[in-house]
Amino acid sequence: MALRILAVDDFEPWRRFVSSALQQQFGLHTFLEVSDGLEAVYKAENLRPDLILLDIGLPTLNGIKAASRIRDVSPDSKILFLSEESSPEVAEAALEAGGAGYVVKSDAGRELLAAINALREGRRYVSSRLAGQVFVGALDDYPVEDFTRHDLQIYSNDESFLDGLADFVASGLNAGNAVIAIATESHRQGLFQRLQTQGFDPDAIIKCGSYVSIDAQEALASFMVDDQPDANRLENTISNLVKTASKAANGATRRVLACGECAPLLCAQGNLDGALRVEELSDAFSRKYGLTIFCGYLLAHLQGDKEQGVFRAICSAHSSVTPRNGGAQFV
């Protein structure tokens, strides 16, 4: 579907850059440009654009004040801030004024299209360098029932598996959520490196509690009894993690996502019944605590007759099951 976009920036070469980038990616019905905040409010009221790309340092009326007025006159327009400001405090103020996303201009070449796609899907987006440092509440039009999920993907090799975990973590952080990653030590290190490559500051997001990294073996030890998960211990582990991760630095509550290797690790160790029980309990707790849980399995661990039989039961404990790439298929 064609987009009607209003670009608000007082630097004409920047508007040309944005226009060119978006013309190549989207079929634009309308791409309008204005150079000051007050005119942006008038245009938004008259044209009701789908998306407004809004700078902060504008003449007449700054972008944050303009966003507050635009929310009143064109409430269905999504506002994506594009600003040179990289301060978490400025970004949070912009989002509180009505922005659905915030991208630092120097990151726009890498993040602009991802941000626009996120907003079109009803999600928030914050530049990777600010993710975890800026609290953003849920969009009003983001269905809560869509957030409570327990998804599974199948991978052909360890590298694609780690890429899938990294994509899940990055997407959650960019949306302003907290993410819990329960993984083996090698995968924890790999995630750390991939997040750095994508522009995140892992030390910062860990320090503020937006990213919680836990060793999978230690997690299993906290709730496994005689090769089976103890339901009460597992729930205590999950509830404590959710309680900690959901509390933002400013005291507000944020949504929590989790990706884990506990069940896949048990499966790799040959404890198929234990893996199935972990997935069944995790599915129940995802609904109880309003979580999105992501699981990934390697195809090599699912090849035998017994493994395939148990894995079919594991699949039934998930909201969706998909192959990550053409090489990972389950029959």
Structure in words:
With 331 residues, the chain is α/β, with parallel strands linked by helices. 48% of the residues lie in helices and 20% in strands. It contains 14 helices and 14 strands. It has 2 domains: 3-126, Response regulator (Rossmann fold, 3-Layer(aba) Sandwich); 144-323, P-loop containing nucleotide triphosphate hydrolases (Rossmann fold, 3-Layer(aba) Sandwich).
Question: Keyphrases for this structure?
Answer:
331 residues, alpha/beta, Rossmann fold, 2 domains, 6-stranded parallel sheet, 14 helices, 14 strands, 48% helix, elongated, disordered C terminus
The percent of residues in helical segments reads 40-55%
In angstroms, what is the radius of gyration?
Answer: 22 Å
Strands of the widest sheet, in order across it, are 2-1-3-4-5-6
Summed up, the helix count is 14
Number of strands: 14
Question: Would you give the CATH topology of the largest domain?
Answer: Rossmann fold
CATH-defined architecture of the largest domain = 3-Layer(aba) Sandwich
Mean pLDDT: 87
At the fourth level of CATH, the homologous superfamily of the largest domain is P-loop containing nucleotide triphosphate hydrolases
Strand content: 15-25%
Task: Label the structural class.
Answer: alpha/beta
Please write the string of helix (H) and strand (E) elements: EHEHEHEHEHEHEHEHHEHEEHEHHEHE
The major β-sheet equals: 6 strands, parallel
Number of domains: 2
